[in-house]
Amino acid sequence: MPGRITPSAAPSTPSSPTALSLRPLALAMSLALGAGMAHGADGAPADDAGEDTPVMQTITVTGSSDATAYTARKSASASKFDLSLRETPQAVSVVTRAQMDDFRLDNASKVLAQTTGVTVEAVETDRSYYTARGYDITNFQFDGVGIPFVFGNVMGDLDTALFERVDIVRGANGLISSTGNPSATVNFVRKRPTQGLAAAAGVTLGSWNTRRLDADVSTPLGADGRVAARFVVAHEEGDSHLDRYSPRKDVAYAIVEAKLTPDTRLALGHSYQNNLARGGMWGALPVAYTDGTPTDYPISASTSADWSRWSILNNSTFAELAHQFNADWRVTATATYNRSTSDSKLFYVYGTPDKATGDGLFSYPSRYASANKQRLLDVAATGKFALAGRRHDLSMGLAWSKSTLDDVSYYGRGIGTALPNGTAFDGSYPEPLFDASTDGSAYKDERKNAYLAARFNLADNAKLLAGVNTVKADSTGSAYGVSQAKSQSDTTPYLGLVYDIGRHVSAYGSYTEIFNPQSSIDRTGQTLAAATGKSLEAGLKSDWFDGRLNLSGALFKTRQKNVAEAAGTTPDLKTFYKGVDSESQGFELDASGELAKGWQANAGYAQLRIQGDDGKDARTFIPRKRFHLATTYHVPAVPALKVGASLTWQDAIYNKVDDSTTLHQGAYAQLGLMASYAISRNVSLSLNLNNVTDKKHLTSLYWTQSLYAAGRNGSATLSWKY
Predict the structure, then answer these.
(1) What distance lies between CA 656 and its chain's CA centroid?
(2) Region of residue 238 (left: phi > 0; alpha: psi -120 to 50; beta: else)
(3) Interatomic CA distance for residues 409 and 221, integer angstroms
(4) Cβ(100)–Cβ(107) below 8 Å
(5) What torsion do the CA atoms of 55, 108, 518, 703 make, to the nearest 10 degrees?
(6) Is the CB of residue 71 less than 8 Å from the CB of residue 552?
(7) What pTM was estimated for this model as a whole?
């Protein structure tokens, strides 16, 4: 039963000229590699063109980037070095602003669902987990600065209006992210001021009375252009395919960049997002009856009560100072303060229903409040040095973070009340007084790390990236009666080699480690040692047509050791854990960019195998095979018209609850269609249709409960740009 709604104690058991001149080589390689994905920015930062002054952001897109591109020319998300995707010795996918706009990918879950090898586990209406290469993704960054991930999942609906693109580095990333799982690192790259005045606005009307307004303005704040600002706002509200569920969110973002001297820039920014969900679900629907057969509710079924609500408020303030000492060396310092608060009244339904009567479900009302504060400092220096007659790259950095979490659960009267005759799904359970009992958390987490990396220019066609990252993690306090005290540290190495086979093709290999501090206790009450992980990866990468098309294929082997897994309860009903080992291996194929004039595509295929230390299949709720495609095409006969389609497919999954019950979800595909028409140079109309075949399926088997994905739905957007 759910003692709280924090992710560490989930209410259910866990188990992304106009003629079509198709480039034959591009098509051949796309078919050979299978698929892929990437991302490019929608506007260069101020002063980025034709000037040698430093760029403040740690992640930049340079060169002749097209606002319609589905790939990126460069990314620093894997190494702090601003390298092309081909030069990076690790699998990297990027989702561009163009792709987000074309397919209305207005939140993080939609973006990651169209990313190679990433699975979105939507366990509730307002909470999601993400996995890659068999493990949960717990490394998230903003502009290359890591954010300590307290919970392990994302609460609320992280809007993408703030971001220029999203980079996903798959596998362990021990060079930049020294803690977490060997799954992936997700880097959200914020929008920055552009050169000159630019503005955009849009109005979207969608299914279930959904309305969205957004605006984006970038402007210089002086005649000399030394100071520039960008402002982004968005508002969305409506109902949903679920009974009683009405989400709403407000988003605002402002950033000011100032050139203090020809070599020094300062940026100050703040983002705000307020999510308010009425009728949201805590937990989800029972997936099996007492006889082990699957349930089959309407897709609108919900266990929420009429009075259920969940409010999540996120504020983030950051300052970034960059100084270019000379043509070779640059230092960037970033300070960030994040505050996230949550307040909710939720209704959880637990139990297993009888197939004939529907009885067997029970109530669990609770009120929950939390406050999470994070302070972060990050200083990074990059430059060049000479050795053995060649020029090489060097990067070093220090980071510090301190997170505090305070939360409290107020348990409602009537826990355990039977819910017969369908009353679990009609929202009629009366709101109780939340004074039956209380429990909560109060703990602090502090992390310090330093890294050093060098990219050695061994030969004209060979580059070696080597580095180390050392980290120390300390925690104090307790969470729901369990001590969070720990002090763990480790040093993780990184090695990556890239060898150019020819003008357009490179082979690469990399090895990286990662470790994850843990607070879980074992049967004797001792804190488990940190989980450790490592990734081995090798593959081929290529770029074509001046970087407008990127193709890649990767083989990987990932291992995770001593991960906490629930092993039972103590006499006072506290859960204890054991450390388990597992291994995943597989391959990924990627293709993204311009396949022909006016034809953009982003596709990927991933296949893996996950086994526990007993040699049996593990984490079977994760699909072993997954494919995605997003593509658009400007119609030559009607230059103002662009059409496109998206497709995601995954194979069957299951979750064995016990000897008599195994939950299943068969293989399924979801098809999306889009069309946009430029009414004038500044105004366009877009239409999007999702789940065209109206396929009914569960969103996840990560827990032993689940809910249904939305049926066929659509939207229309009127956009204006200046």
Answers:
(1) 27
(2) left
(3) 47
(4) no
(5) -170
(6) no
(7) 0.89
Residue 356 CB contacts under 8 Å (≥ 6 apart), including other chains:
none
DSSP assignment of 256-285 equals EEEEEETTEEEEEEEEEEEEEEES--BS-E
Region of residue 283 (left: phi > 0; alpha: psi -120 to 50; beta: else): left
Burial 350-365 (b: 16+ CB within 10 A, else e): bbbbeeeebebbbbbb
Tokens of 581: 């080992």
Residue 14 has pLDDT above 60, yes or no: no
Please write the tens of the pLDDT for every residue from 317-331. 999 999 999 999 999
Query: Both tokens of residue 25?
Result: 């080589």
CB 95 within 8 A of CB 119: no
Q: What pLDDT digit, counting tens, does each position of 360-392 carry?
A: 999 999 999 999 999 999 999 999 999 999 999
Pair of tokens at residue 594: 């311009």
Cβ–Cβ under 8 Å, residues 304 and 245: yes
CA dihedral 423, 425, 426, 428 (to 10 degrees): 60
AA letter at 511: Y
Q: Please give the mean pLDDT across all residues of the chain.
A: 88
Kindly report the backbone phi and psi dihedral angles of residue 113, in degrees, each rounded to the nearest multiple of 5, phi listed first. -65, -20
Other C-beta atoms lying within 10 Å of the C-beta of residue 268: 15
Which tokens in the block code for residue 184?
Answer: 């992936």
Tokens of 360: 């067997």
Structure tokens that stand for 358 in this block: 């529907």
Whether the per-residue pLDDT at 213 is higher than 50: the answer is: yes
Q: HSE-up of 584 (CA within 13 Å, CB side)? A: 32
DSSP assignment of 457-520: EEETTEEEEEEEEEEEEEEEEEETTEE--EEEEEEEEEEEEEEE-SSSEEEEEEEEEEEE----
DSSP 306: T
Contact 520, 530 (CB under 8 A): no
What is the distance between the alpha carbons of residues 153 and 156, in angstroms, rounded to a whole number?
10
Which residues 6+ apart lie within 8 Å of 368 measured at CB? 4, 5, 342, 343, 344, 346, 407, 408, 409, 410
